[in-house]
Amino acid sequence: METIVHQLQRGVPVHPWRLIALDVRPGRFVEESLVTVGVSKEGETAPVAMLLLYRGRPPHYRPWVEIFGQSPDVHLGDETLPFFDSPLEWTLLRLVAEALGPGDRIFVDCEADLESLQGMRLGIPEALTRAGFLLYQLGFTWFKPWYISEGMREGGQKLQAEKPLDESARARHLRRIREDIRAFVARTKGKPAIPEVERALIRAKEILP
Questions:
Q1: What domains sit in the chain, N to C, each tagged with a CATH number?
Q2: How far is CA 180 from each of CA 54, 118, 202, rounded to the nearest angstrom?
Q3: What CA–CA distances, in Å, run from 33 to 2, 131, 139, 164?
Q4: pTM for the whole thing?
Q5: Contact predicate 70/112, CB 8 Å
Q6: Which of 162, 158, 179 is nearest to 170 (CA)?
Q7: Among candidate residues 28, 23, 21, the one with its CA nearest the CA of residue 153
């Protein structure tokens, strides 16, 4: 977790911008940190997302990271930058993925990510949703969509992904992913075209052997 904070405090190049930590503060527990992630260029900055980092509490709880509050459009000076499907998003996801080890989890808020949100609502396999496919490419092989109720602080729709503990778990997860994809492809044959489904079918060709 400290790797993520330190890299963002130094600045992570995403030509011609940099991802930076605009603010780092304690979370609800001693193991948590809340990071406001921003983009910077020529002295101008703008927030792009929030990170909640949980360092874990061995041997009972493993580390995890939640990404939430993403800005679909980032306004930096006279520029408007897209976040989703951009190098900014990929770099942030990769930064988090590289800091997480076997069995560790990531939670990605999909409330502003309308394609991923709609994909989950349509029952598209998680690894074929827009966000899920990015996480799959970064080594995550177990997925679960959530709506997490948090009492007075209601959470939105999130996609959870985990890295496999070992090669045996990875093989088992991949078998399950491919079974789900084959079933999805079969049940969509002959159905009316839906943009989210069509894009999922294109991704399926990259996963199926």
A1: 1-100 (3.40.630.30), 118-209 (no CATH)
A2: 31, 18, 15
A3: 10, 23, 24, 24
A4: 0.93
A5: yes
A6: 162
A7: 28
- Other CB atoms closer than 10 Å to residue 147's CB: what's the count? 10
1-13 tens-digit pLDDT: 789 999 999 999 9
Q: How far apart are the C-alpha atoms of 153 and 155, rounded to whole Å?
A: 6
Both tokens assigned to 91: 């770099």
Joined together, the tokens standing for residue 203 give: 């991704």
Chain-centroid distance of CA 49 in Å reads: 11
The whole-angstrom separation of Cα 143 and Cα 158 is 11
Question: What tokens were used for 79?
Answer: 């520029």
Q: Which two tokens stand for residue 209?
A: 């052997």
Q: List pLDDT tens digits, range 185-208.
A: 999 998 888 999 999 999 999 999
